[in-house]
Design a protein that fits this description.
elongated, 23 strands, mainly beta, single chain, about 375 residues, eight-stranded antiparallel beta sheet
């Protein structure tokens, strides 16, 4: 019996579509939902979708939902979870981060009597790919029509990153898009609010954020207010962006310039009018003048990291000669460590400051992920 079952599954798999094959196809056809009526549940809509577009990652939910009483399955050995929640309009087949594909689907009630149906299909490796398909269901015609621009307001912070994960809600109505980065995975979460017809960008959340303070002490940051805005901008004009966190968006706001280091974040510059720290940007250099503490720092940047931190203490009897703080990471990687003379020369060579216009977005720290 098992051999027959596997043989049938193999034959069925031969007719399945891959996620890659679906990318150019899903927007090309409407879908008839036979017997959909005025209030089709998420399983009905998924079955109609699967009849036209049979994608392999949907088959677990399709098969188990044939039993109207089925709600949950958990495979502890393979960390696989399947949920069919008709009441809340949600289903998923979560492979638990393994090499297997995953899927989820959800349905929302629209204020015009229609339904919005979404199905997300993901394949984590070879290649990494996530596809989200949206359809408007018309109860009069019982037809689902593709909707192409439901999440058109999504703007990744790091626009060169291509892998994003779409989290559909089991409870509530909001959609969350996780932006994975090569430097720090699972860091940025874009939240979109549902208004009864469509989704609109609300804010970003951050979890697991630890900011190193090798160059700036907590005491220097004590006047910074709550960090409520975020931007990813090439502030030093070197072609690589820096992450910025701010407590406001006006001229009196304070902000931190953050750089990547070994997959973590550290402060490369501190701007705070209250504590009299002022930041100026040059090509490849972030300058912080700490007037109240009587020192100036120069973060020498390369590909988004601090390669050297030059600190000048003019009142410590050094004759204005810069003290060069050595970045251990440079020594470990065999890079040349800057001398005091080279640091002085770099400071003298700084030309006109670089101007920039950060695109601030509202930020909410997710305490559950810290």
């Amino acid at each position: 019996m098992l051999l027959i079952l596997f043989a049938c599954m193999s034959l069925q798999a031969q007719d399945m579509l891959t996620i890659e094959e679906m990318v150019p196809k899903w927007q090309t056809r409407t879908i008839k939902v036979s017997g959909g009526g005025e209030k089709p549940d998420v399983v009905q809509l998924l079955r109609a979708f699967n009849k036209v577009w049979p994608v392999y990652v949907n088959q677990g939910v399709i098969n188990l939902s044939k039993d109207p009483k089925f709600t949950y399955f958990k495979d502890e050995e393979y960390d696989n979870e399947i949920i069919v929640d008709r009441k809340n309009g949600y289903v998923c087949d979560d492979a638990g981060g393994t090499d297997s594909g995953s899927m989820s689907a959800c349905v929302w009630r629209r204020t015009n009597g229609h339904r919005l149906f979404a199905v997300v299909m993901s394949q984590p490796v070879d290649p990494e790919i996530v596809l989200v398909c949206f359809y408007d269901y018309n109860p009069t015609t019982q037809i689902m029509t593709p909707e192409k621009n439901v999440l058109s307001e999504f703007r990744p912070l790091k626009d060169h990153e291509k892998f994003h994960l779409y989290l559909l809600p089991r409870k509530g109505t909001d959609i969350e898009i996780t932006e994975y980065t090569g430097d720090c995975e699972d860091l940025f979460h874009h939240v979109f609010k549902w208004d009864g017809m469509n989704f609109h960008f609300s804010h970003l959340t951050i979890g697991n954020l630890e900011i190193g303070k090798r160059w700036f002490s907590p005491k220097e940051m004590q006047y910074m207010g709550d960090l409520q805005y975020i931007s990813y901008t090439d502030v030093d004009g070197d072609g690589d962006g820096e992450l910025m966190l701010a407590d406001g968006t006006d001229d009196d706001a304070g902000f931190l310039v953050l750089a990547w280091r070994a997959g973590n974040l550290e402060i490369a510059g501190l701007h705070d009018p209250v504590s009299d720290h002022e930041v100026t940007f040059y090509k490849g250099v972030v300058k912080t003048e700490a007037k109240s503490n009587d020192y100036t720092s120069y973060a020498v940047m390369n590909e988004g990291i601090v390669e050297q931190m030059i600190t000048v203490y003019p009142t410590l009897g050094t004759g204005g000669r810069p003290k060069v703080t050595i970045d251990d990471a440079n020594e470990q990687q065999g890079r040349t460590v800057m001398t005091a003379e080279q640091a002085e020369q770099l400071i003298r060579s700084l030309d006109s400051p670089v101007g920039f216009q950060p695109q601030w977005r509202r930020l909410v720290f997710n305490k559950d992920k810290q």
